């Protein structure tokens, strides 16, 4: 596992569980419909399951779900399904044992050729693969308020930058899979000021800071939100769903 992600997410597991958005059920339903797969009988794996936000949505539809997560701090929050220690590159699962694999907010951290080869090993013939990311949807007014509240620390030109996700869908490692189909679904999350601070705390690049530096950053965020009068916030998200299956 990427050491930056391991360090950051281990330190921020509680904030991740409390503040990260969940996933729209209609996106999960769209994945099963795309594959022509009955969730009631499918054997499904949630890879890099984190604290189990997606696992819980899957478990509400699928009696046979396994979550795989390398970090004990994250895995401790998973209660909706069986949780196993493992990585995308080394799944603790038998050959051709899964009808579908889901990955939420994590694929950009993987050794992608190794992970895709492992997915192809674990999936049954014609098995499905779904990759999901939640992206912020903001108005110009929201962006101005947040930029002021966060003091320009995040985004272009800021001190803290999210990991680069570009180019993940290219390369010969995708040869075993069909062309990727993209779907989008919008949903909303209600956050208090404390929730917004915890959302920032859940970012791996914040969690990876030394404790004193992390406290200083989060204190600045909390102070900025207070100065902007942001006590409550309706955060809109766009769930980007990418679907494929073994050829």
Describe this entry's structure for a reader:
- There is one protein chain.
- With 247 residues, this protein is an alpha/beta fold.
- It is built from 10 helices and 7 strands.
- It has helices spanning 3-11, 13-19, 25-35, 53-59, 72-75, 112-122, 140-149, 193-201, 204-207, 211-227, and strands at 43-47, 64-68, 82-84, 98-104, 123-137, 181-192, 232-245.
- α5 (72-75) links the parallel β2 and β3 (82-84).
- α2 (13-19) packs across α8 and α8 (193-201) runs antiparallel to α10.
- The longest helix is centred in the last third of the chain and has 17 residues, at 211-227.
- The chain is globular and about 55 Å long.
Chart the SSEs and their pairings:
Elements: H1 3-11, H2 13-19, H3 25-35, E1 43-47, H4 53-59, E2 64-68, H5 72-75, E3 82-84, E4 98-104, H6 112-122, E5 123-137, H7 140-149, E6 181-192, H8 193-201, H9 204-207, H10 211-227, E7 232-245
Helix pairs in contact: 2-8, 8-10
* Class by alpha and beta content: alpha/beta
Q: For the report, how would you describe the main beta sheet?
A: 7 strands, mixed
Terminal CA distance: 27 Å
Radius of gyration: 18 Å
Helix content: 25-40%
Neighbour order of strands in the largest sheet: 3-2-1-4-5-7-6
Brief summary of the model shown:
By secondary structure, the chain is an alpha/beta fold. The protein contains ten helices and seven strands.
